[in-house]
Amino acid sequence: MMAKNKEPRPPSYTISVVGLSGTEKDKGNCGVGKSCLCNRFVRSKADEYYPEHTSVLSTIDFGGRVVNNDHFLYWGDIILNGEDGVECKIHVIEQTEFIDDQTFLPHRSTNLQPYIKRAAASKLQSAEKLMYICTDQLGLEQDFEQKQMPEGKLNVDGFLLCIDVSQGCNRKFDDQLKFVNNLFVQLSKSKKPVIIAATKCDECVDHYLREVQAFASNKKNLLVVETSARFNVNIETCFTALVQMLDKTRGKPKIIPYLDAYKTQRQLVVTATDKFEKLVQTVRDYHATWKTVSNKLKNHPDYEEYINLEGTRKARNTFSKHIEQLKQEHIRKRREEYINTLPRAFNTLLPNLEEIEHLNWSEALKLMEKRADFQLCFVVLEKTPWDETDHIDKINDRRIPFDLLSTLEAEKVYQNHVQHLISEKRRVEMKEKFKKTLEKIQFISPGQPWEEVMCFVMEDEAFKYITEADSKEVYSRHQREIVEKAKEEFQEMLFEHSELFYDLDLNATPSSDKMSEIHTVLSEEPRYKALQKLAPDRESLLLKHIGFVYHPTKETCLSGQNCTDIKVEQLLASSLLQLDHGRLRLYHDSTNIDKVNLFILGKDGLAQELANEIRTQSTDDEYALDGKIYELDLRPFDAKSPYLSQLWTAAFKPHGCFCVFNSIESLNFIGELIGKIRTEASQIRKDKYMASLPFTLILANQRDSISKNLPILRHQGQQLANKLQCPFVDVPAGTYPRKFNETQIKQALRGVLESVKHNLDVVSPVPTNKDVSEADLRIVMCAMCGDPFSVDLILSPFLDSHSCSAAQAGQNNSLMLDKIIGEKRRRIQITILSYHSSIGVRKDELVHGYILVYSAKRKASMGMLRAFLSEVQDTIPVQLVAVTDSQADFFENEAIKELMTEGEHIATEITAKFTALYSLSQYHRQTEVFTLFFSDVLEKKNMIENSYLSDNTRESTHQSEDVFLPSPRDCFPYNNYPDSDDDTEAPPPYSPIGDDVQLLPTPSDRSRYRLDLEGNEYPIHSTPNCHDHERNHKVPPPIKPKPVVPKTNVKKLDPNLLKTIEAGIGKNPRKQTSRVPLAHPEDMDPSDNYAEPIDTIFKQKGCSDEIYVVPDDSQNRIKIRNSFVNNTQGDEENGFSDRTSKSHGERRPSKYKYKSKTLFSKAKSYYRRTHSDASDDEAFTTSKTKRKGRHRGSEEDPLLSPVETWKGGIDNPAITSDQELDDKKMKKKIHKVKEDKKQKKKTKNFNPPTRRNWESNYFGMPLQDLVTAEKPIPLFVEKCVEFIEDTGLCTEGLYRVSGNKTDQDNIQKQFDQDHNISLLSMEVTVNAVAGALKAFFADLPDPLIPYSLHPELLEAAKIPDKTERLHALKEIVKKFHPVNYDVFRYIITHLNRVSQQNKINLMTADNLSICFWPTLMRPDFEKREFLSTTKIHQSVVETFIQQCQFFFYNGEIVEMTNTVAPPPPSNPGQLVEPMVPLQLPPPLQPQLIQPQLQTDPLGII
Q1: Burial letters for 868-898: b for 16+ Cβ neighbours within 10 Å, e otherwise?
Q2: Burial of 555 by CB count in 10 Å (0-12 exposed, 13-18 middle, 19+ buried)?
Q3: CA distance 726 to 742
Q4: What is residue 781's predicted lDDT score, i.e. its pLDDT?
Q5: Residue 971, pLDDT score
Q6: Which span out of 797-811, 917-931, 961-975 was modeled with the highest average pLDDT?
Q7: What is the DSSP letter of 255?
Q8: Which is more confident, 765 or 207?
Q9: Is 469 exposed, middle or buried (0-12, 13-18, 19+ CB in 10 A)?
Q10: Interatomic CA distance for residues 606 and 600, integer angstroms
């Protein structure tokens, strides 16, 4: 059973390989290939095949275990698989004869028979004989595989007879054949099968092979197999054929001819080689090693097959060749890269054709080596050539090896470079020539296509030479130049026509009629027509200019970084910092003065005389003054002394200078010397405070004959002192024998000490009681952006002055001057602004004087000055300053002469000062240039402040950017109140009781927030107007802002004290423009903190009530009413009676355009160009007639602007002096009012005009046309909301701060063209998108909240119970049209999300409702019911926002404070003090809207 389970062993055969053997004499120099045949069969892999096997052995090797003293070798066994799948084991024996390496005779072995008999033996025996592998194994058996011959004996089953058919080595084939024949005879005796193996057939000799075949054919059943051990051809076939002869069950052996077998074998090798080479191709790094790659590929079948067939050595050689190819390819690429880089290197090192045009290659190389940039382009290697160094591996080093330049390729590149420079020079010349040809063609206009011009230059030589691309490039460049020039000239033209644009208020939006007027005027200009073919660009420039005019900021200034405001801030930041540091050093050097250093200037020995007199009064140079001893160091100075600046050393720094004179000559000497000293100090700036040296003029006592000139000297000395801003010490009254009096000397010393102390106070590091912001005069200097002069030129009169210092912190555009004006030292604040920034200051800030600067080289600068000056009140002094290079310009340049003459002429007309600043002159940069102007301003200071306060209480003005910080002196400029009857000014706006209680509110304490049609909230300070029934009532009434938490220490007024004050004020009615009855605290209405706007349309014309709502605390409010008596002569304007001033022959302040014929005629000329059909009476109405409020529409509703701005009336008292004309126009006005009332009766439903000025098939369409059942929300609304919520939900002031009007229009226009437009790609601000969204709802034909439901909403809002009220509102919402409902829910949900971020964006539901309710409900403020319920409308929308989840998503009611105001009284007449609707001011710039109200509404300190 066990025998059956054993697997059958494969049959085992022993084959003996025999052939010619013996000494070299017998077999020749080489064997017949028996060993190679056995090696290839037993170990067929190429790496295991050894082509050399020696039979010459040492005695030791012969006796080793491998040979084992035998003349045969055991090659081991191999399993052979037959074609039929039957396996057999074959043991291979090689019969040979080993030769002694000493005797060269066969070794002696145990078997002494000759080789022929030994080889034919069928039984072999050798104990522990090892398998033979190769010759190297002998003696090192332990290093090779050790395998013993089985059982030490083998029985031979067959013989393989080897016959060498090659040429052989010193061997005759016939001798071999005889040996084989004898051997075959012996083999036949063993009766074992024999097969002849013809060896070395790869070197076969044909007739040898034929002889072998003939030999075999003579023998029976003797097969010949043609073999080649080197190429492994038919090796296995030999043994297979012999096995088939031994095993009769196997088929007959199939013998394949050598050539066929060789082809088959070579095909295998070629296929394996291709596969292996492809495998090697995957290696791309020529740094790779065979060891690394072979380890990666050793398991790959293609790799293993090739190794088996060809061996590792060939594989490594193939790999090495591939690596070398990679390296050469890399070098080739680097060479190409270097060659391609050479032109750029030549352009860098040899760019000039003139230098290299005549140089040969070697000279050019030397020139390049001398260049500074040579090392950047080339590298000189220590070893050459470069491709055999490691430089080829430095991939990051792109420098060219210098030895590469020795090649012919490099020289050829150089020659090409020279030729390229020559051709490029010619090409550039022809392009420039063609450019000049284009410049000569006058009819080429900006924007003209190339095709229209090309036909005119076809025959031009330059055009023919250059390519078409070059010609188009030159023309494009020419077009860019003329277009840029045309745009610059167009922009300059717009500034030249500044009067055309600056007649509107800030933040207004021009109406369509205003735009038509602008186009009509500008269309006459050639610079306007020059951009005819670029009309869109021209329109864009115009709109950009208009946007800047009405929304001017330094960020949007058309001059960019050259904006005057930016330049001034930068200059003042650096200059004033240096001034303060210098003064601080002076402060440290001058503290605790005990020693006074003095210069004494004089002529003809006067200086020495004064020094002697002072020393006479001193004791050891110590002078007693006011109880203190001072050490005096005196340095007299006259015409023969060195320059004063040379005497100023580190050891002697004077504190002051006495200038003594006793004649006109000595006075002139002093004046010239001081001027030279200051000029030198200003120029060299060695010590800036040498120019700040305090001077004191001292008049010396006169002798008898000269004393007659004393009054003249006194007058001249005082004038020079005023000019130099220094004290003047006169000769005291009485008769003194000496030239100088002790009183004079002490007075002069006190002046020096006071000046030093003053300089220290300016930069005192310790706190002082004097507030820096308390300026005596506030002057605004205006300059135009882009004028051709530097800012430091116009500021040099101030910055070079020793009295200049920095203004209060936060005023980056201001400086302070300390100057002696009259008899006192005054503090003057100079604020330097651009004209566009000055416009807001001109109307809203207290300014005592203007310094208007313009360039005499630029018409636009004069145009801007005229536009600005036209609107300045004629009570404010003005100084005009023309800037040019030198006085010679006036005589050499007609344009400059014309502009300087015009400026001087305007100054003469308005009685202003005029001067010129010259950039090449130092004298005209001194502060004294403005001394007379400052004196004029100081003289008119009280009148200016009175006028300013009067205007603030008379007109509704909008807030502007705070250029001046407030101070007590500024807010209340009244210090003295004359008791005369001629005093018609208003009473002081503060309480005479104390600083902690205020009766009359300042403008900042009044109602500040207004709403436009889209709900934008704008802070204002204004007073109401009794004639609001004549205004455009399409604006909402004011909403009083919620007061902030008041201070807890506010003192309440005693009722009896209030009556006393009221009675006291009433005793002097001429000193006030209004009577102010005060409500008692107990009468205050604690209902809420909002002022309810009440309709006053049906008030009597003669009655005007002004109500100021002043928040007192959270529980109370004070209502102060000013009542005015009707003036039958039509003397009312803006709700104020001018009767008092008329009775005293005084006029209200007018504007400079009515005092200057030049300014007035310029403005009038613009009007007449667009209103040529109107008479002067129609165009210029008198101010005595009540004019309509010149409301400028909000930025988001341009159509709220008036149609004809000039017909609203011009405030010109000079024109309105004719009483008859006043009466006529009053009648016209009354008649017009009656007609207006009649028209109002015919007015139907309120339909606000669209804000757009373009046709749209989307905006302004009914909501039902913009939605579908699948998309119930308009696409534009979705895009805007998604943009806002993704990018700007936390933006401060969202929906309150107005966006850019142009951007809003662009958003809608582009959406009109492409509904798939992405708002993110447009790069617009969140506020612009928010404005466009509100504009969408404002443009709808019907409001989102239908008019029909407004009454129901009002009734529901009056329900006292909160829960019941909310459910009632919810039922009303359900009545919305389905389309309106979906959109309303969507937008309210969005607003709710906005309100949830109110801690960041400051937009609570209350603020959002203020901004949105007019847009959603579209009120008509001409209807009385809308005016009386505005607060309720707003509160309803606020409720929707707060309770969004309840109304639309069945959520719970959110608990919060009361959001809906209680219903107003049913009868408006029951109100004790009805409120007048206030005029809506134009919207402010976003940055000007304050995020929160003042914390102290009552102004309590």
Answers
A1: bbbbbbbbbbbbbbbbbbeeebbeebeebee
A2: exposed
A3: 20
A4: 93
A5: 38
A6: 797-811
A7: P
A8: 207
A9: exposed
A10: 9
Burial 572-604 (b: 16+ CB within 10 A, else e): beebbeebeeebeebbeeeeebeebbbbbbbbe
- C-alpha gyration radius of the chain: 57
Tokens at residue 1183, please?
Answer: 């101010």
Q: Give the dihedral sign, CA 1145/1164/556/1306.
A: positive
CA atoms within 13 A on the CB side of 373: 9
pLDDT digits 0-9 by tens, 822-844: 778 888 999 999 988 888 777 67
Candidates 966, 965, 969; CA nearest to 942 is 969
Strand partners, 198: 163, 226
660-683 confidence digits (pLDDT tens): 988 888 888 888 888 777 776 665
- pLDDT 10s digits, 1198-1229: 323 333 333 333 333 333 334 444 444 444 44
* DSSP annotation string for 957-968: EE-----SPP-H
Residues linked to residue 660 through DSSP beta bridges, in sequence order: 698
What is the C-alpha to C-alpha distance for residues 662 and 671, in angstroms, rounded to an integer? 13
Q: What is the pTM of this model?
A: 0.44
Listed as own residue / partner, the contacts of 1146-1150 with beta carbons closer than 8 Å and 24 or more positions apart are 1146/984, 1147/1213, 1148/950, 1148/1213, 1149/873, 1149/874, 1149/875, 1149/947, 1149/951, 1150/873, 1150/874, 1150/1211, 1150/1212, 1150/1213, 1150/1214
Token pair of 387 as six digits: 């491709």
226 SS3 class: strand
Q: Is the pLDDT of residue 453 over 70?
A: yes
Residue pair 673/639 in contact (Cβ under 8 Å)? The answer is: no
Higher pLDDT, 1436 or 1455: 1436
Smallest CA-to-CA distance from 816 within 1004, 679, 683, 967 is with: 967
What is residue 618's predicted lDDT score, i.e. its pLDDT? 85
Mean pLDDT of the chain: 75
As a whole number of angstroms, the distance between CA 743 and CA 1386 comes to 88
Element of type H or E holding 72:
strand 72-81
The answer, yes or no, to whether residue 1082 has pLDDT greater than 50, is no
Element (H, E) at 308: helix 301-310
Q: Which residues contact 734 (CB under 8 A, 6 or more apart)?
A: none
Q: What are phi and psi of 579, to 5 degrees?
A: -60, -45
pLDDT digits (tens, 9 = 90+) for 72-91: 999 999 988 876 677 889 99
The mean per-residue pLDDT over the stretch 1035-1063 comes to 41
Residue 1282 has pLDDT above 80, yes or no: yes
Q: Which helix (H) or strand (E) holds 658?
A: strand 656-661
Q: What is the DSSP string of 412-440?
A: HHHHHHHHHHHHHHHHHHHHHHHHHHHHH
| Tokens, residue 54 | 């020696």
On the 0-12 / 13-18 / 19+ scale of CB atoms within 10 A, 928 is: middle
What is the identity of the amino acid at 117? K
